[in-house]
Amino acid sequence: MSTNSPTLAVVVPLFNEGAQVRFFLDRLMHVLRTMDVQWQIICVDDGSEDNTLTQLIAAHSLESRIKIIELSRNFGKEYALTAGMDHCHTDAVVLMDGDLQHPPEMLPAMVAEWRSGYDVVYMTRRSRQEARSSRRWGRKLFYRLFRWLSDVRLPPEAGDFRLLDRDVVAAIRRMPERTRFMKGIFAWIGFRQAALFYRESGRENDQSKWKFRALLALAMDGLFAFSQRPLQWIGLTGGGLMTVAILYGFVRAFGALFLHAVISHGELMLLVVAFLGGVQLLSLGIVGAYIGRIFNEVKGRPLYLIRQRYGMDQSSTVKLP
Ligand code: UDP
Ligand code: MG
């Protein structure tokens, strides 16, 4: 490895990964040592409640190129990734999970694509073993909805396992939004993107850290942060309903005036009122979803808080605008 070989940072978000962290780091370093890059590994401990941090500190004391960012609590993977990217000053950054589902052996191929001129190399799953089929259906439904609602195209089966050029990292850092849906952000930024395939290893002793509620919240964030269409529907539905109501009023009034038809239909009214009430509540819910997010942006809270850094320049924190 020469001194002018490119610099590469591998950002790994970790939440309760326990003892297998050491195994993962060993396997990752084994691959990195064969590559012609100056590497470092940035582990972001996302408020783990087990011994993940102890394991990381032990690994750091043996290899100073392993850096640690300890967040003050569990902020979620998207924020852990953001924290990691904010601390990278390398020519390229690789994002990967720390549970060995993303094979480190793919790194040389990713770097080769990047060196041939691509800014983003995203990894596409060949096979995915989902613990529960409800998850699979949920995922399918989400992608279908997203395609329908948003103009941003998400590549299917692409996760957060990817390589980003430093310019791309700089571009992502310029996005100040608090609702961070990384898959959407990655698709939105553009640049020259290449896809590579990989086989996801099994989940035998591995449970997803995502609880159903967290997944649902992520899906909602994705939909509302990258689509304005529900807002437009409110206007359309309201306008449509009003037109129908006016026409219906005219018809009934005409009937009553000229044809002596009986107007009062309590039951019918009840139905109409219930229907309108339902539509109004639904619309309010959609508006509320946006307002909630506006509220989040306006509050201007930091995206994450760091408790401690290990082996890292304390001044390297990049402030968002
Ligand atoms: N993770 C995290 N914070 C969380 C949940 C997960 O940093 O709140 C990390 C986790 O340690 C792993 C990666 O994000 O390295 C992917 O998590 P997981 O394997 O649970 O997700 P899945 O494989 O279902 O996408
Ligand atoms: Mg996983």
From TrEMBL:
**Any Pfam family matching the protein:** Glycos_transf_2
**Which InterPro entries does this one have?**
Glyco_trans_2-like (IPR001173), Glycosyltransferase_2 (IPR050256), Nucleotide-diphossugar_trans (IPR029044)
The residues covered by the Glycosyltransferase 2-like domain are 10-169
The residues that cross the membrane are 239-263, 269-291
What is the protein name for this chain?
Glycosyltransferase family 2 protein
Entry's localization field: Membrane
Native species? Dyella koreensis
Membrane topology category? Multi-pass membrane protein
What keywords is this UniProt entry annotated with?
Answer: Glycosyltransferase, Membrane, Transferase, Transmembrane, Transmembrane helix
Stored CDD domains: DPM1_like_bac
